[in-house]
Amino acid sequence: MARVALPYTRAVEPHHVIVWLFIGLVAGVLASRVVIGHSLGCLVNTAVGLAGAIIAGAVLNAIAPNRPADVAGIFGDIAISFAGAAVLLALIRVLTPRRSRLGRPGPPPMRRR
To answer: Whole-model pTM above 0.85?
Structure first.
């Protein structure tokens, strides 16, 4: 049996996780303000920003797999995360039904005669 060499892996350091959370929070706040018009709260903004970063990172990796991982520093990471979070929020907004101010589905529109 042939042995397969595993790729080089690094341990995740705590300060990297803090930076990821910060980038996710900033990207989520920016995306929710642009797409929805208001903030969704600290935890939801962070989750949306991190999900957006994963989505945008996967798309960029599919488009240009050989590009360097960090080309524009933290501002580039925030911009990429913002783009992914904005697309995610736009998709969620399109796919979910509209609700009234009270959180219940509104009545059907009136027909004109």
So the answer is: no
Taking the C-alpha atoms of residue 80 and residue 49, their distance in angstroms, rounded to an integer, is 10
Token pair, residue 95, equals 């796919």
- Summarize pLDDT for 54-108 with one digit per residue, the tens: 888 778 778 877 766 666 777 888 888 888 888 888 888 888 776 655 555 555 6
| Furthest C-alpha separation in the chain | 79
Tell me if residue 100 falls in helix, strand or coil: coil
Angle between helix axes 42-63 and 73-95 (nearest 10 degrees) is: 100
Q: In angstroms, rounded to a whole number, what is the distance separating the alpha carbons of residues 56 and 39?
A: 21
Gap between the terminal Cα atoms of the chain: 79
